[in-house]
Amino acid sequence: PLEQLVQECCEILEVPRPRVIVRNHPEPQAYLVAVADQPHLVLTSGLLDLFEPAPQQLRFFVGRELGRLKCNQLRLRQVRFGL
Question: Given a cut of 50, is residue 42 above it in pLDDT?
Answer without folding.
Answer: yes
